[in-house]
Structure formats: structure tokens, C-alpha cells
Amino acid sequence: EKELIRVLYVDDDPNFLKVAKQCLQLFGSFQVDAILSVEEALEKMNKKKFDIIVSDYVMPGKNGLEFLKELRDKGNDIPFIMFTGRGREEVAIKALNLGASHYFDKNGDPETVYIELSNGIRQAVERKRTEETHKESKNYLETILNSIFSGVVVIDEKTHKIIDANPKALETIGASRKQVVGKICHRFICPAEKGKCPISNLGQTVDKSERVLLRADGNKIPIFKTVTGVMWKGRKYLI
Hints:
Number of strands: 11
Largest sheet: 5 strands, parallel
Strand order of the largest sheet: 2-1-3-4-5
Shape: elongated
Mean pLDDT: 85
Distance between the termini: 40 Å
Helix content: 40-55%
């Protein structure tokens, strides 16, 4: 079963709100909390977690754009869909510029309107969940990389640019991450000349080999070095 999507739906028309809730729950795996005002919605968000917000534009008190702006000003990046029948193109543009995921018009064939809305909700939530999964994976890998006692440097095999380096590597090199990342490895940490990379150009295998590390201050120190090639997102890197 698909994971249930928790929707906070805000609209000042109680009759429309009721119908919209029924339609959404008919067209998707949604749990919909129907709210009549922005103020009430903000209170609800303090008590319950939602995956996405669907909001009307024209409402008494704060309107949909003001609601979205307030959330983004607070650093809340929850997916937000503007769903209204009284807005204009400029409202859609403002909503998207403020960080709305989609803008949908209420007018039209109800079945078509709510199928489009339900699809838009799924897409926005899935995109957000994917981003969070990637962020968690990145944080997990960074934690592991930073905990390794040996120096580890990640290099783009094609450009030879340094992509990342853990704290132990930076300490050994004698430079900050900002000074190291983005630099060409043979000009910074490896004394090999351009076009004579032992791995990429000369086809050598480096496994616990005695080599020389070029420090930031120009000094050379002996090290044991191992190089492993990996593929990630269709690109080859040297670790």
C-alpha cells in the first residue's frame, strides 16, 4: 500500500471544503484535515504534522499568498499548492516565486480538476520525500567519512578536481576544505605532472603503495596510498 499523504486543506467556503475533501479522498490515498482560515491552519500545524498544504487564495484575514510567505519566512519548506478559482496569472506567478509547488484552478470539470490536483499533491510530496531521503543519505555518508581516521579524498576521474576530503585528509594536507575542494589534485596534493596521472593516464594500480603527498605549504611527506575507482550517477570517481 502507498503511504498515506497527510493534507492540510484551507478554504473559507465550508460547503466547497466538504466536497473537496471527499473528492481528494476518493482520488487518492489522502488523509485530509479541512480548515476554514489561515489562523486556524497555523494552530493546527503546531499540533499535527502534515505532508502538504492546499490553500485557497482569497480568504478573510490572511490570504493564501500571505500564508505561503509566512511559512517560507519562518523557514518552513512544506510543499504548498495554491488552489483557487478567483486568482489571476499574476497570483500564480507570485505563488510560484514564493516557493509554491503548483498552482491549480478550481474551475472546470470536477473530475478533471481533482484528478489534476491529486496528481499534483502526489508529485510534490514524492519530490519532497526524495529530497529528504537524499539529504539523510548524504548526512549519513558525511558522518562515516568524517569518522574515518585515515585521510580520504574524492576526485573526479575525468577532470581530476577534488570533490571532497575528510578532516583527517585536510589536516594532513594542511589546508581548509574551501582551499582544497575544486582544485586539481596533481597541482595540490599529488606531485604527478598533468597528463601523467598514475591511475587515469598510466593505468597503474595503487594499493597501500608508498607515495608522496604534496602539502599546501609545498613540503612533501611520505604516505601509504590506496586508490579505488567507483561509479556514481554515471560518473567515475577516484577514492
